[in-house]
Design goal:
Number of helices: 0
Distance between the termini: 40 Å
Shape: globular
Structural class: mainly beta
Order of helices and strands: EEEEEEEEEEE
Radius of gyration: 13 Å
Strand content: over 45%
Helix content: under 10%
């Protein structure tokens, strides 16, 4: 059974940092391009960061460029999203997703507020 389980969300003040984790089971995430999406209140789910299987090509949406870092650990079958200098507009539910599949995690809430 395929599962993606996110963790690491929470409440943080502006300027703070969080690291999200997404542990995959039932498939080998290194065989797919992995991504993180964000759904902010009242908005559509949008892609935030994408990583190719080897990590050789990484792309970010402009709003998180130079603040967020996507990475993976093949041995742990886990993909991460390091989020630095967080802003209130980063608030939302973050999902990991294996591109070209219907594999989605359940999401983890990130709230940036003072």
């Amino acid at each position: 059974q395929v599962q993606l389980v996110e963790s690491g969300g929470g409440l943080v003040q502006p300027g703070g940092s969080l690291r999200l984790s997404c542990e995959a089971s039932g498939f080998t995430f290194s065989s797919y391009r992995m991504s993180w999406y964000r759904q902010s209140p009242g908005k559509e789910r949008v892609v935030v960061a994408v990583m190719t299987r080897t990590g050789g090509s990484i792309n970010y949406v402009d709003s998180v460029q130079d603040r967020f870092i996507i990475s993976g650990d093949n041995a742990k079958n886990t993909v991460y999203l390091q989020m630095n200098n967080l802003k209130p507009e980063d608030t939302g539910v973050y999902y990991c997703h294996a591109l070209s599949t219907n594999y989605w995690g359940q999401g983890t809430q990130v709230t940036v507020s003072s």
